[in-house]
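Our consortium's second objective concerns turning raw sequence data into structural hypotheses that experimental partners can test. To show how far this objective has progressed, the report includes one record in full. It was chosen at random from the queue rather than selected for favorable results. The single chain below, 428 residues long, was entered without modification.
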Amino acid sequence: MRRLAVLALCSGILALANSGCGSNAGGSGAPGTNREPGGGGDAGQASRTDGSMGPSEGGTTAGGGIDGAGGSDSESTSDAMPAEDAPIGTAGGKCAVPVAAAAEDVSSPTTVIGDGTAASCTPDEVVAAVAGGGVVTFNCGADPLTIVVPEIEIVNDGGVTKDGSVTIDGGGKITLSGGGKNRILRQNPCDSSLHYTTTHCNNQDTPHLVLQNIAFTAGAGLADQVDSGGLLGGGALYVGGGTFKAVNITVSDSQQTNASGQLVQDLAGGALYTTNMSTPGVIYVVNSTFQGNSGINGGALGSIGTSWTILNSVFKDNSATGHGENPARTGTEGGGLGGAIYNDGNDYTLTICGAQFEDNLANELGSGSIFQVVDDLNGDLDIDQTTFSGNSDNGDVQQAANHPSIFVEARDMSNGTSGVTITSTTFN
């Protein structure tokens, strides 16, 4: 099982990486085989002894603000655009979207599901279309339609390009549902049953998966996969390699489930879990909504070593349901970190602009909205034009009036910067 490297439980506005707190980075994970993602390295030494909070050693940096390099004002008034001016699919925020993060052209689809009627858009048609790869669109009539599907698996050497790549565009009308019984979509180059295509499945460029203008609901990542050496997360979506982009999607009411008596400290991502992504790839999530999802860690998003850029998106009513942190405290099954987002691993960055985090819940470390630990202390957290409101601040760390609900350890502050920049953002 993957184990967290460090939890530097320093007091202050945010829990930041600080050599004065005695944190040590953990080792790197080994490449995965079959259906098992790469294993974790040795855990570093956590600095907590009794949970007490001493004087702040890492709340601010030499720059005078959260950003050690420039001393940015971390409590400035939000510059986010009003909701009525926001793009469709968001409730606020209008940050610029780079070309690489824009929706793909689907004007010449490889496969069109349906003949213009709802009855023609069956689960079997969806499975076959995704297997065929290329660009998949829907023609299911004028009304919104929910299609209950089995877990759709992307074959790594399948499709028209013979590398599994697929773009799925729901036209703003289609919802794929797991029916509360199964995960909805799985991409995993390190699963031998889906065919190995390279000698480096844990860091290969394909398949390319793009999801846009589509919704996912009632996905379930089953807990019995823990004992069988299975996947580490993703209630609705699991992306275990290649590349991924989400534009104007909604993921709701999905869960990564627990099971009594199992050590579940590593499970994460009630909506979406990623690992082994192509280096130096960045996952874009744009104009998207994650609502009502739950996971052991990371109620909405969970990942190992993934760099995210999240733009103009909403995280609402997601929850991390575990207890005991990671590594799990004695007598617990672990988890409970990151009500909306849980990130672990080496060498990664989390960038958020124009987002809203509302009423997300975590049981541990004051991480109701975001938990981020970069094991090798070589990472960054950059938040701009974002609103945090009503997120929990539970646990024995933080409970800070200025910046509740975020636990982050990105860089060793002895190098002059915490790796954290928060600008034009409000916390309520």
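The partners drew two points from this record. The CA atoms of residues 236 and 288 lie 15 Å apart. Residues 1-91 have pLDDT under 50 and may be disordered. Both points have been shared with the crystallography group to help prioritize constructs.
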